[in-house]
Design a protein that fits this description.
The complex is a heterodimer of chains A (273) and B (273).
Chain A (H helix, E strand, L loop, with lengths): L1 H29 L3 H5 L13 H9 L2 H32 L5 H13 L2 H14 L6 H7 L1 H17 L4 H8 L4 H12 L1 H17 L2 H6 L8 H11 L4 H33 L4
Chain B lengths: L1 H15 L15 H8 L1 H34 L4 H8 L1 H4 L2 H11 L8 H8 L13 H29 L3 H9 L4 H12 L1 H16 L3 H6 L11 H11 L3 H9 L2 H20 L1
Helix pairs in contact in B: 1-14, 3-8, 3-11, 6-8, 8-11, 11-15, 13-14
The chains are: A mainly alpha (273), B mainly alpha (273).
Chain lengths: 273, 273
């Protein structure tokens, strides 16, 4: 038993190290001066500790603008996905209509179709609509992966709730929408939170569509903007690290609070790996 | 759903039969794109790279995922805290993960983690350019992709292990089965379903991965890490040959058509149960 516990502790330690070292490396570099990075001084801990990368990033680049764009897109897309996701999931979980199984299947399939297959034709469609090179392109394209996903996740949560509650509401004279809004949604709150977090994270981190659909530097989102920092000027290392830290912190903080729900969501929906 | 996925997809198929160049109207050319690619050396390299990248990543993820699940399953205190901690790479933006690993493998000691540490410890006399060789670059992108993906496997397998009834293990122990035999005859069969789902899902998404490779190597050095998605992007947006670019990603479709029903059947069965 003793050796078993020792092995567990060692294994756990190894995994924690593997996961944390890269995070620590970016965080520590974001607080180093240009010289410290360039000449490999104070490798393990930044000494002296500096905020210059953060101020440089905030004042000297378009990063604040990219952050704003990312926040707008991720926020709006999360709301839209929840709206369509809830309505769609309710219909698929509760209403009986022909073709229901087919739609459920189509949902899974469309969630599995990789963006790498769709980006060129989507670009053409968006160009014909005159929507490329604007945030509208992302509003129109991000639902292709968040809506099927949220719907799928929510179906699982809705199905787990007893149907009698809504039936009681319907008998009492509520409309279907009222039953959904007043009875089902409050009960499915954990599922909705999980779906919202996933939709937000997926949109916040999306790269390919933003790279392809948007050329104007002021309209970029953070992930694409970061790449611009590398190729635009090779010497922006510290600022890049600072940008990585700023981008990662909101998602990680959000997640720290609700990771239990997320794990439940994982189990319910089998998420992209 | 039809508008979001079906329409662009049918446009993709049409485009693949044309010689569309940006700025010129498209002309129908039949199977010429398909034949051209089948005979092109670069495309053969791309197919091989994609398979190496995918198979290596998925195999590593399965093995470390199993190890992580076993360790977490044996953890007797703060299990959900460690589960949350180890899941962090999975919520972090892939672009930032790719940038981080690029820096970890960087040839300059001050920026590259491995070179800094090895030089500091006196194990190296001069830095190694890890990503300058074809094998090194491939290994680096596999490592980055593995690091992002293994926590998802670990958490899924942990959930699977927790649903295996404890009596099975007790009965086996009474019958004199050792730890290894219990793992082999009880744990692995119990995980069969979740393993099939995670492996297939990840196989599909990794085969079409764009972000990690584009950010870390742009398919280089040469074409050593060029895969379907990055090559398709290169041909469509740098050489401006849209017809051919789309054809590259359509070559993956037969494989998807074979795999997607398999995955969705497993996912839907999970729902029904």
């Amino acid at each position: 038993m003793r050796t078993g516990r020792l092995a567990t502790v060692l294994g756990l330690g190894a995994f924690v190290l593997v996961v944390l070292v890269p995070f620590w490396w970016i965080a520590s570099m974001s607080f180093k001066t240009y010289e410290q990075i360039q000449f490999a001084q104070s490798i393990y801990v930044p000494r002296p500790f500096t905020w210059e990368n953060y101020t440089g990033l905030w004042l000297g680049t378009r990063f604040p603008l990219w952050l704003r764009n990312s926040a707008i897109i991720a926020g709006a897309n999360t709301l839209a996905s929840l709206l369509f996701g809830c309505l769609g999931a309710y219909a698929l979980a509760r209403l009986r209509f022909p073709g229901r199984a087919l739609i459920a299947r189509g949902l899974v399939v469309s969630y599995l179709v990789p963006p790498a297959l769709l980006f060129i034709p989507l670009y053409r469609v968006l160009a014909e609509l005159g929507a490329t090179n604007s945030l509208a392109a992302l509003f129109l394209s991000y639902p292709t992966f968040t809506v099927p996903f949220c719907t799928w996740l929510l179906i699982g949560f809705f199905k787990a709730l007893p149907i009698e509650l809504e039936e009681a509401a319907l008998v009492d004279g509520a409309t279907r929408l009222q039953a959904l809004w007043r009875v089902l949604l409050p009960l499915a709150a954990p599922g909705i939170v999980a779906a919202a977090i996933f939709a937000f994270t997926l949109s916040w981190n999306e790269f390919l569509y933003a790279l392809v659909f948007i050329q104007d530097e002021r309209t970029l989102t953070v992930p694409v903007g970061l790449n611009l920092l590398i190729y635009g000027d090779v010497f922006h290392w510290g600022e890049l690290m600072a940008a990585s830290v700023i981008t990662t912190v909101p998602v990680v903080t959000l997640y720290m609070f609700i990771h239990r729900w997320m794990v439940e969501g994982l189990a319910a929906g089998s998420v992209k790996g | 759903m039809v508008a979001l996925i079906g329409y662009p997809f049918s446009r993709a198929i049409w485009l693949s039969f044309t010689d569309k160049l940006v700025g010129y109207p498209e002309r129908f050319v039949g199977l010429r794109n398909y034949i051209y690619l089948a005979q092109e050396d670069t495309f053969r390299t791309v197919v091989r790279n994609s398979l190496v990248f995918t198979v290596a990543s998925v195999a590593l993820k399965v093995l470390t995922g199993l190890a992580m699940a076993l360790v977490l399953h044996a953890t007797w205190r703060w299990r959900s805290f460690f589960r949350g901690l180890l899941l962090l790479p999975w919520v972090t933006s892939t672009v930032i993960i790719a940038l981080t690993w690029r820096w970890m493998f960087d040839a300059f000691p001050g920026r590259g983690f491995f070179n800094s540490v090895l030089l500091d410890a006196g194990l190296l006399t001069r830095p190694i350019a890890f990503m300058a060789t074809p094998e090194g670059a491939m290994a680096a992108v596999v490592v980055a992709n593995w690091w992002r993906g293994f926590p998802f496997f670990g958490v899924s397998y942990l959930a699977g292990m927790q649903s295996i009834p404890g009596e099975l293990y007790e009965a086996a122990a009474v019958d004199g089965a050792g730890a290894w035999r219990r793992f082999w005859h009880i744990t692995l069969p119990g995980l069969q379903h979740v393993m099939v789902v995670t492996i297939l899902l990840t196989f599909i998404f990794t085969l079409n991965d764009f972000n990690i490779i584009y950010v870390m190597t742009r398919g280089g050095p040469g074409t050593a890490t060029q895969v379907f998605a990055t090559y398709s992007y290169e041909v469509a947006f740098n050489q401006l040959r849209w017809g051919r670019g789309v054809t590259i990603s359509i070559y993956v479709v037969p494989l998807l058509i074979a795999l997607i029903p398999l995955v969705s059947r497993h996912l839907l069965r999970e729902r029904a149960a």
